[in-house]
Structure prediction request, 628 residues.
Amino acid sequence: MSSIPKDKFTPVPKDIASAQKIHRPSLSYWQDAWRRLKLNKVAMFSMWFIAFMAIVAIFGPMLFPDYRDNHLDQTLLGPNSRFWFGTDELGRDLFARVIRGTRISLFIGLTASLITTAFGVVYGGISGYFGGSLDDAMMRFIDIISTVPDMIILILLLVVLPQGIPTLILAMCLTSWSGIARIVRGQLLQIKEQDYVLVARTQGASAGRIIAKHLIPNALGPIIVRLTMAVPAFIFEEAFLSFINLGVRIPEASWGNLGQSGVQQFQQHPYLLIFPALFLCITTLALNLFGDGLRDALDPKMRK
Amino acid sequence: MQLAKYIIRRLAISLVTLFVVITATFFLMNSMPGDPFTGQKAIPKAIKDNLYKKYGLDKPVGERFVLYLSNTVTGDLGMSMTYKNRKVVDVIKQSFPTSADLGIRAIIFASIAGIFLGIIAALNHNRTWDSVSMVIAIIGVSLPAFIVGALLQWLIGLQLNQFYKLIVGDPYAMLIPTTGWDNWAAKLVPPFALGISALASIARYMRTSMLDVLNQDYIKTAKAKGLTKTQVTVRHTIRNAILPVVTILGPMTAAILTGSFVIELIFAIPGLGKFFIISIAQNDYTMIMGLTIFYATFLIFMNFVVDILYGVIDPRIRLAKGKA
Prediction:
């Protein structure tokens, strides 16, 4: 105890300048989220896989354009050197069809998600921002809409509407926007009570500016997560609809209708189901895993 | 009083929804070009007029709507247009029990296995079993029912039974049949195929809920007062964690129901889902309308029951919803 010399106890001089110094680089919300996402190996791997599938969807059909050409002398061949995934009952090249299906399925999934999200954000944004009786009315409407069984109404719409991919996307959007609208509204109700919104309002910002500049960017995290999770859900929905013959029509190819025709001949020609099913499952798996990772990265509660 | 108010509110919403569905169904089906008698052969006008009269298609839309509404309320959903003299209601009575049997088995399987998986995952948070359970769960979400069904049928229906035939030496022997719905063995595989995606979502939900409860102070108290690990887990954690899982019973019923369309078709089960898909393919439009309304009513009712159930179990929800 007594061995500690007295001069060890001199006070450290107060240095106001260095106390104010920020030692670690300041990170914005998005930089921080990106840093956290990078630590998640599964999510990063999924992200690169999705990027790869996007490239396949964009450029693949250009390299293998003959997805609808019949080779009637070469029907139902197994995988071989000319037809990598084999051919179907009309001698169409399954590889070219699966590649084409990648484009169609991802296109449907992405467009439907974007439209649904955009509409949900606008609806939820208006409802959450203005509040009061308008909010009440809009939310009662959603209560009713969301009690209606989506899939049943979707089937009904597709039975009635003219066939085609645009109608398919439209019908899927019509039956699924209420979830995102609710989330956006909930977020806005919290954010609009924050002080920076009050400041913006006292400085005379218009409602549109406050929604676009302050509310939406701050509510963006959950919206993006929801958007990512919606893509595989829509791809699944298309596959289900194709299975009951209400989805994408042959000769156009989608993972759903390839799987559907594969199921019918699965016992004799398993490759007809296995290839499209693998593409479908691995891509939806990657999208789900990436969505999970994104949620962990964007959730402010996880922040340390 | 609070509860009664809550029930009435939910009931009102359900009834409005039901009315919206019935109206939408009627007018959507009405807007369709052509009619069930538009076929390849031209039908003489006199016959066509009589057919129109028989099915009430000669009256104006408004009158038909009112008639349809009153018929629907009294439980008359009309006649099938492709099967002669078969009422839609009779078809439902005949084949819905099979679908319900399949669905209930799937839900029981999915709930038990899903809750079990979720508990295992949460109790081993961030360890091997957690990862294993969650990988199973996420694979379950990424496999469409028709692929699971086809794979199982191939694996069990074809390969396993082929193998069994070789061993027994009887070319007609079946260990586990994967078509039909007439004996207990045939009822094993389809509920499994149907339940797998519900299982996955239940497991994930249960895990989150368990982790939430495990962080609560009353768990700490329970441990501090000297309860054994089993007592804490069973009496305090699982019991509280299982409550929120009730909320996904509604969406899950819907998912099981739509899944059953696919599973019934793949496994050749004579349920209502199979009928629905066939009637869509055949443009049997009274049948489509009738079954749509039946399914919608069923799902709306199930949602209503789940809401009430949840309101009864957890008063906080009731109060929060009443305020909003």
About this structure: Chain A has one domain: 29-302.
